[in-house]
Amino acid sequence: MTDSHDALAHFLAAHSNLLVLTGAGISAPSGLPTYRDENGSWLYRKPIQHRDFLTRESTRKRYWARSTLGWPAVRDASPNEAHCALQKLEKKGQLELLVTQNVDRLHQRAGSRRVIDLHGRLDRVRCLDCGALASRESLQETLASANPWLSADSGEARPDGDRDLPDDTLARFEIPSCARCTGVLIPDVVFFGGSIPPARHDSCNAALDRADALLVVGSSLQVYSGYRFCRRAKELGLPLVIVNPGKTRADDIADMRIAQTAAEAFASVQV
Ligand code: APR
Ligand code: ZN
């Protein structure tokens, strides 16, 4: 492991066609909590499973009630200097592609254009019946007006900013339906147990085939869809550098792990 700032500077100077993979750690300074701690253990409640969302109305109620309360924090979050550093790298022509596991769209808000949201995007919802797409923001008003009794202090506060809502509160929660066909709405993200659209994966793999190195920023790599880029990079003989304060699943195959947050590591690198 190394924690030398200039190690990152040298790495960036030596590679002009990077694939960058980011995770929740890069958005933590923007106020959006990570899922796991520095040991890779879950910090909070286990995530919603794709299958449960499809088959259980109680899961959909829990999801949409928590989302009604939690969406404003995501909508109002701002990109931080690490997002901006990666945007500058793109502007300098040094990025083949930025693949993010985050669903917060902060890279795009920082001005990055060459971005693939590997796990989808929270600012959009999709109808499972007719496929219509709608903005999540347009739904917020509907959710709030259909559930006027739900407020920011409903239930119990949780450390991740979410709220634990009692079953009777959830039972009365009115979940939204598609404005076009009254079908079931789902956020345009990949839940656990869901699959990443093959075309999205193919684009990421094709970009990795063209890249000259893989840089991972702010991810524990506990989820296979992120970790597999590291495996493939090594199969392709590409250098793999990880910037992350916590342990990651790919530490044993990385050429270098800089044990710092993205903000710290990029702070003194003149991008
Ligand atoms: N503050 C806190 N943690 C940070 C910071 C920071 N400033 N910078 C980096 N980290 C590190 C944590 O130590 C942790 O190792 O960021 C990492 C975040 O790891 P995870 O929470 O597991 O996030 P991520 O790797 O993006 O998770 C991948 O798992 O839950 C699913 O779909 C979800 O996209 C997510 C995927
Ligand atoms: Zn519909």
UniProtKB/TrEMBL annotation:
Its EC number is 2.3.1.286. Keywords: Metal-binding, NAD, Transferase, Zinc. The keyword NAD applies. The active site is at residue 119. Residues 1-271 form the Deacetylase sirtuin-type domain. InterPro entries: DHS-like_NAD/FAD-binding_dom (IPR029035), NAD-dep_sirtuin_deacylases (IPR050134), Sirtuin (IPR003000), Sirtuin_cat_small_dom_sf (IPR026591), Ssirtuin_cat_dom (IPR026590). Zn(2+) binds at residues 127, 130, 178, 181. Gene3D superfamilies: SIR2/SIRT2 'Small Domain, TPP-binding domain. Transmembrane segments: none annotated. GO terms for molecular function: histone deacetylase activity, NAD-dependent; metal ion binding; NAD+ binding. This is protein acetyllysine N-acetyltransferase. It comes from Halioglobus japonicus.
